[in-house]
Amino acid sequence: MQIAGPIGVTPRAAEQITVTVHVADQLLRAGLVAHLGQAGVRVLEQTTRSRPDLSGTVAVVVSDRPDELTLAELRRLVRGGRQQVVLIAAQLREPELVSVLECGVQSIVWRHQATPERLAQAIRTAARGDGELPPDLLGQLLSTVGRAQRSPSAALYLAPREVNVLRLVADGLETRQIASRLSYSERTVKNVLHGIMSRLHLTNRAHAVAYALREGYL
Questions:
Q1: Residues 173 and 118 in one domain
Q2: Distance, CA of 57 to chain centre
Q3: 13-42 pLDDT tens trace
């Protein structure tokens, strides 16, 4: 998988998001760059000698159907919180979806739905630390995780406040919307989610929702 140079996304004048594009096919890369350009994206050519610090940036990864090489790349990008990841995929079966989420991918966009506006929205969402899945993919996730008995272990118990937050995450609400709905601060919502993921060794919000569903909380 080849890595293209960083891209600066400026959907609003006051917002500056750095994006890197990861795709092996150069023709596909050119089409993606053109798509992003229509959404106000400017390509910043960088040489390998002047590669910038990518911490806190958004990585856009294109893979028709993620294989082991793609999963390894996703883990590398997410490792240590260096980059939020938006995955553009043509298809994802249940085992592949679980593997992608376990890698820490925040947002997934179907390739046939990857319009300039849709990509820009996914990038902005990922940059905020939020995530989203296509409705049909979320439905697939919910239908496959099943419901099991709650673990009696106190360490694995979800408190009512945690369940309330995860229920709204499952409904597709962003951090600020969850905070407004529950009369919390955005920091509190983020802390609740971080606590759940740290305690239960979960990789991201979708993984936490899947856990709550599997354990019968939702």
A1: no
A2: 12
A3: 335 677 888 888 888 888 888 877 777 655
